[in-house]
Amino acid sequence: MTPSKFARGLSLAALLAVPAAPALAQSETSPARVTVLYDAFGKDASVRKDWGFSALVEIAGKKILFDTGNNAAVFLANAKAKGVDFSTLDFIVQSHRHSDHFAGLAEILKVNPKVKIYGPKEGFGVYGSSLPSSFYRKNDKLPPEQRYYDGKPDETLKFGTAWDGANIEAIDKTTEIAPGIWLIALVSDQKGTLELKEISLAVDTPEGIVLVVGCSHPGIEKIVEAASAINPKIHYVLGGFHLVNAPDESIATIAASLRDKWKIANIAPGHCTGEPTFAALIETFGESYAYAGAGTVLNVGKQRRAETPSLIHKASFAPAETGSHELRGPAAALTGRELEQYRARAAVSPDAREPAMMKWLRASFRIPEPDTQR
Q: Which residue, among 44, 52, 97, 96, has the nearest Cα to 73 in the 3D structure?
């Protein structure tokens, strides 16, 4: 029997035998958490304090290291104290080029040399870059030996990184790097950091966006605004807000805006946010303010359902741009007539599994409700 015939034979009976399940049952979820590994304040005696930032983000089934601190020795000591295993990281996000955020990266590469690293793309940036060869003026009257690349440069010129051989991907626009996991790429327009490129991590969870920022040089509100384009519900914002020297009037305005305009549910500032801003945000957010000093472990929501081997869970849908909402993949048997038969049979089953099951499928694979598909 061919695999396709076997799947067709299994589809109706096997899928109808699968009990209905909600999109995210309490028993099938576990806390998503962020561990602050590096900062200049904190109350955990097991870690050392120093200026800089790093956090381990365990969410959506991934282990993500966000930034790697200011001092390699301090970073390694703090990671060891919190039981971090660098060999199990799914990837690393380096928010920007300032050294108080990348000092520990070389140490990680000694343990996990092939780990995927995302950094901002800048011309001649430390995380690597490329430029069209048209970036420089040319003079074809010069002899070849006096010209760059003998006067015949490649169309695109690639430039190296500060970590030779590292698996780095430079990001220059907001990108979804895994299902529900986004890197927000913005550029600073502030004095002192003009044109500095920075990326932030936004994870779309059942509770809303969990947003992790490094220094927020482009502006914390601009980053939140970009995250709200992914999901207008902002569940958590944590990291450095770059308000360490901001005047009280600006701090009060931004704090009120984060609460009232952007409706942030929980806020956990650290690093370059600044002591006056800590105080203002505590007053503004009250019980929605979460302490996030070095060594702190923050529970920021629930992780997604763990992958299961059932045909139902492996079902997926055609890309939205095709206009099709047919099942495909291992559940490809459930298309056309067979899908209609499945729906018809399930709809009259004694336990009426169809509505709950389809609701779960839509939630799991982000499929619009039926009235929005037409």
A: 52
Span 249-264, pLDDT tens digits = 999 999 999 999 999 9
For strand 129-132 and strand 156-159, is the pairing parallel, antiparallel, or unpaired? antiparallel
Give dist(CA 119, CA 253) in Å, integer.
31
- Quick check: 105 and 117 in contact, CB under 8 A? yes
CA 252 to the chain's CA centroid: 28
Count of CA atoms in the C-beta half-sphere (13 A) of 97: 20
CA–CA dist 26, 336 (Å, integer):
34
Neighbours of 56 (CB within 10 A): 19
83 token code pair: 């039981």
Helix (H) or strand (E) holding 327: strand 327-328
- 262 neighbors 224 (Cβ within 8 angstroms): yes
pLDDT tens digits for 157-191?
A: 999 999 999 999 999 999 999 999 999 999 999 88
What spatial distance separates the first Cα and last Cα of the chain, rounded to whole Å?
Answer: 37
Strand partners, 301: 32
φ/ψ bin of 150: left (φ > 0), alpha (ψ from -120 to 50), beta (otherwise): left
